[in-house]
Amino acid sequence: MKYADLHVHTFYSDSTFSPEEAVSCARDRGLAAIAICDHDSVDGIEPCRVIGGELGVEIIPGIELTVEKADAEIHILGYFMDCSLGWFRTRLKELQAGRIDRIRKMVEKLDSEGIRLNIDDVFKEAGRGSVGRLHLARAILKTGKVKTMRDIFGKYIGFNKPCYVANVKLTPREALDMVLRTGGVPVLAHPKCMGRDEYIPELIECGLRGIEAYHIDHAPSVIKRYEAMARENNLLITGGSDCHGLGKARILLGEVRVPYELVEKLKEESEKIRNEYR
Ligand code: AMP
Ligand code: ZN
Ligand code: FE
Ligand code: FE
Question: What is the CATH number of the domain that holds 188?
């Protein structure tokens, strides 16, 4: 059997893994394919493809976009987009620039809570990648002021906590349109983390094609709930580890995997979307 992990980050967003590390880890763990789904960036895809060609691991072009509601953070994955489109690249650059502004604002808020950071240290954590809260969290850990990631997110920078600042606001329709117009297949990432199933119908209305029912944070009962929801709504059921290299407690790559047939289904869906939207 061939397997794929459909949710992998690289250091082009907030994983510690270089393309070499991500792809060789995928090979070592016996995966036929991985989808590179960095936050607001497609820059890791080509470098991974080069290495994937050498190591025999298929690289699926992916992305992870953030949508915000007043009371929830929604992550939308996209698969098989045409990444060469100029407007798409421009929009991603805007989102990445918005992330820089946002991190500056969060650093100011942290300062007023007595956590002093040098902004350049945060940007150093991000390297060439699109900067995010995981980088900020790592810089906070290094100050020694807060001891655990759990406290950093739970008390300061988690969604709607005192030092949280919203991301550039994409509406669900904007995020889904952005994926669909590139020929990509939009999938709701880790719905349990969003915690608001009542938003799913709106996403379906806007063109959602799948739900990431299998995710490292989903217990068996949660998986069942989202599998059922996907079936009821004729959506694809996808899954991935959301590996961030060493950015999370351990290397998760391949711990969630789906049969390779799902990759074929995503490709077919992308073809359909291309005929419909372009
Ligand atoms: P950002 O894209 O900058 O909003 O950051 C999102 C990333 O922050 C996610 O991919 C997670 O890795 C991390 N994150 C968000 N909330 C938490 C949390 N409560 N605990 C640990 N990590 C979190
Ligand atoms: Zn991330
Ligand atoms: Fe996510
Ligand atoms: Fe992710």
Answer: 3.20.20.140
Q: Give Cβ neighbours of residue 138 (< 8 Å, ≥ 6 apart).
A: 125, 247
**Does residue 33 fall inside a structural domain?**
yes
Residues within 5 Å of ion ligand 2 by Cβ? 14
Ligand 1 site, CB within 6 A: 39, 66, 132-134, 149, 153, 158, 167, 244
Query: Does 10 reside within a domain?
Result: yes
**What is the best residue among 134, 136, 138 to mutate for testing ligand 1's pocket, by most ligand atoms within 8 Å of CB?**
134
Q: Give the domain range for residue 244.
A: 3-91+168-276
pTM for this structure? 0.96
Q: What percent of the chain has pLDDT over 70?
A: 100
